[in-house]
């Protein structure tokens, strides 16, 4: 299927979750390689993506089959997924894009000491830089809480990864995507 340049504008949604899924849908349709989604905040919902496919006149099965989804609930799991599992998945599948949703959510958990979370984050950022060297596009979904709070400086560390950042914001009653 060939998408017009205005694909995001033609399908407008008042809810943030739908726009994030639309962004993922666009990436999965524009590139023939599989897309990897690492979800650390419970953001990815295959049912929402299926609904968007149907609204766009697409069969959801093909789109969903092109996605590789993994979830992390702790910073230790996120670190392991990105450092150890992600390179293996890319090598096995030939994926060309990675979406990391809610990455910092897992590192803001106060049950983990700030020192330990910081060490894991720095190691995770180093692993993401290695992924970028393989010419894999990495998009990180950032939430408003990334800029505030006790560990907000973690965001500045994450920016050093040189990954693409996706921020969703509401403007005039609808959500928009900003690449930071």
Detailed description of the structure:
With 180 residues, this protein is of the alpha/beta class. It has eight helices and six strands, in the order H-H-E-H-H-E-H-E-H-H-E-H-E-E. It has a six-stranded mixed sheet, with helices on both faces. The radius of gyration is 16 Å and the shape is globular.
Please outline what is shown here.
With 180 residues, the protein is of the alpha/beta class. Helices cover 48% and strands 19% of the residues. It has eight helices and six strands; from the N terminus they run ααβααβαβααβαββ.
List keywords for this structure.
180 residues; alpha/beta; six-stranded mixed beta sheet; 8 helices; 48% helix; disordered N terminus
